[in-house]
Design goal:
The chain has 420 residues and is α+β, with helices and mostly antiparallel strands. It has five helices and 27 strands.
Length: 420
C-alpha cells in the first residue's frame, strides 16, 4: 500500500541526503533541497510533506531520470474528447498521489524531463505540477477542465491541442508510478511496407524467416491490419504492425495488404505488395518411373522445372554421363533415336539455380518389336473369338461353319499367347 506518510526523521534525512549527493554539482538545487530538509524535519503536515517531496522528485527527474520506453504509455485523443489518465491499473488503492503535466505558459515553474520514446529516441518535455493530493491547482489556466477522480486518476474534459504532452503520476518522494504521453489523434497517412521496392515487391527466400512490417508514418490509426490475399493474419491498435513468415515456394506471388482504419477516415488506407520468394528447382516429368521403349523406334524424354529464379542450367544424365545441357529454360527434352538395348537404364534430369537444385529420374526398358506386335494382336484376337462363339450359339444354322473357324481362331490365339 502506497502512503505519503513520514516514517522517521533519520529515514527522511537519509533519503534526502542520498538525493542531495547525486545532484551536488547543481548549485541551484542546494537551496531547494535545504528548504525541503528543514520543512520535512520540522513539520508533520501531510500537505507540506507532499509539496516538498514533489519538488525533490521534479529535480531528481530533471537531472537524472531517463525513463525506459517500456515504462512510457501512449494515449491518443481527438479535440473535444474527455480523457481519463489512470495513475494505477486499479489493483492498488492509493492514499495520495501527485500529477504533473505539460507546462502551461502562465506557470513560471517548469521542469524539463527527458524520456526515451517507443521509437528509441530521447525527447525532452517541460512539465509542471497539476494536482496536490487530489486537488487541482487553481493556478492552472485550464484548471476548470481538470479533475482528480477516484483513486487519484486525472480527467481532462473538452481536450484541446494544448493538452498533448507528458503526464506523470507520483506516489512517493522518488517514485513515479506512471508516465503517459498524450498525443492528439491526427489523420493517418503515408502507409508503407518496410523493405518493399518501388514496384511494391517484397523479396524473400524459402525456409528463411521473412518479416513483413507495415506502418503509418504520419498520424495515428485506430487499428492496423495485415491481410494475406483476403484473410486477415494480424491486427492491432498501433501505428506499426509486424507479421513473421517462414515462406515456401507456395508463397511466391502472394498478395499482402496493409489496412489502416481511423474514425477520421471514410475509407481505410491501403497498401498492397506481392512476395517474390526465391526457391530451389522442383523438377518433374510426364512419365515418371519406368518407361517401356520399343527397339528400333525413336523416343523423347522431357523434364519440366519450376523454380525462382529460372534454372541457371538443366542437365540430362545417363548414369554419370552428361547427355544434354540447357540454360535458363523451364523445359528440356532430348530424343533417343533408333533405340537399342544399350539405351536401357536410368536417365536423370538435374536443374540448378542460386537457391539449390532438384532432380527427377526415369528408368527406361527396351522391348523387342515382335513381342510388341504380338501383344498388340492378342486383344483383338480374343474379341473376335468371343463374337464367333456367340454367333454360333445364337444361329444354329451356321453352327457348323462357325465351329470350324472358331477352333482355328482358338488355336491361333493360344499359340500367340504361348509365344508371348
Amino acid at each position: 500500500m502506497y502512503t505519503l506518510v513520514s516514517s522517521t526523521k533519520e529515514h527522511n534525512i537519509s533519503k534526502i541526503n542520498e538525493i542531495n549527493t547525486k545532484v551536488a554539482h547543481k548549485n541551484d538545487t542546494y537551496h531547494q533541497f535545504g528548504k525541503c530538509i528543514i520543512q520535512m524535519i520540522g513539520f508533520s503536515s501531510m500537505n507540506m510533506w507532499t509539496r516538498c517531496a514533489f519538488r525533490i522528485v521534479m529535480i531528481f527527474e530533471a537531472v537524472f531520470l531517463i525513463a525506459d520506453s517500456s515504462k512510457v504509455q501512449y494515449s491518443y485523443y481527438t479535440v473535444g474528447q474527455t480523457v481519463l489518465l489512470k495513475c494505477t491499473d486499479g489493483a492498488v488503492h492509493l492514499h495520495s498521489a501527485v500529477w504533473a503535466g505539460p507546462a502551461q505558459n502562465s506557470i513560471r515553474k517548469r521542469t524539463p524531463v527527458s524520456i526515451i520514446d517507443m521509437n528509441g529516441k530521447r525527447s525532452k518535455w517541460n512539465v509542471s505540477q497539476y494536482t496536490d493530493d487530489g486537488r487541482v491547482l487553481s493556478s492552472l489556466l485550464h484548471h476548470t477542465r481538470l479533475k482528480s477522480t477516484g483513486n487519484y486518476d486525472l480527467q481532462i474534459v473538452n481536450t484541446s491541442t494544448l493538452d498533448g504532452g507528458l503526464y506523470m503520476c507520483y506516489l512517493g518522494p522518488i517514485e513515479v508510478f506512471s508516465k503517459i504521453i498524450l498525443k492528439i489523434k491526427t489523420l493517418p497517412s503515408n502507409l508503407m511496407f518496410a523493405n518493399a521496392t518501388k514496384e511494391k515487391i517484397l523479396h524473400g527466400k524459402e525456409n528463411t524467416t521473412l518479416h513483413i512490417l507495415c506502418s503509418v508514418q504520419d498520424g495515428i490509426p485506430d487499428s492496423l491490419s495485415i491481410i494475406r490475399n483476403n484473410k486477415t493474419v494480424k491486427s492491432d491498435e498501433d501505428s506499426s504492425l509486424e507479421y513473421i513468415l517462414l515462406p515456401t515456394r507456395l508463397d511466391h506471388g502472394l498478395k499482402y495488404t496493409c489496412e489502416a482504419w481511423s474514425s477520421l477516415l471514410k475509407q481505410p488506407l491501403k497498401e498492397i505488395i506481392h512476395l517474390d520468394i526465391k526457391y530451389r528447382p522442383v523438377v518433374s516429368s510426364t512419365h515418371d518411373g519406368i518407361q517401356e521403349i520399343i527397339k528400333g523406334t525413336s523416343h523423347t524424354l522431357c523434364c519440366y522445372v519450376d523454380s525462382n529464379p529460372l534454372p541457371t542450367s538443366t542437365r540430362w544424365m545417363n548414369g554419370s554421363q552428361e547427355i544434354l545441357v540447357t540454360h535458363y529454360v523451364t523445359e528440356t527434352c532430348f530424343i533417343l533415336r533408333n533405340v537399342s538395348q544399350f539405351d536401357q537404364g536410368n536417365y536423370t534430369c538435374i536443374a540448378y539455380n542460386i537457391v539449390g537444385n532438384g532432380s527427377v529420374t526415369i528408368v527406361t526398358q527396351v522391348t523387342s518389336n515382335t513381342s510388341s506386335v504380338k501383344k498388340s494382336l492378342l486383344f483383338p484376337g480374343i474379341i473376335i473369338l468371343v463374337l464367333m462363339i456367340t454367333i454360333a450359339f445364337i444361329t444354329p444354322g451356321i453352327a457348323l461353319i462357325v465351329r470350324k473357324y472358331t477352333v482355328f481362331a482358338l488355336v491361333n490365339v493360344m499359340t500367340m499367347t504361348w509365344n508371348i
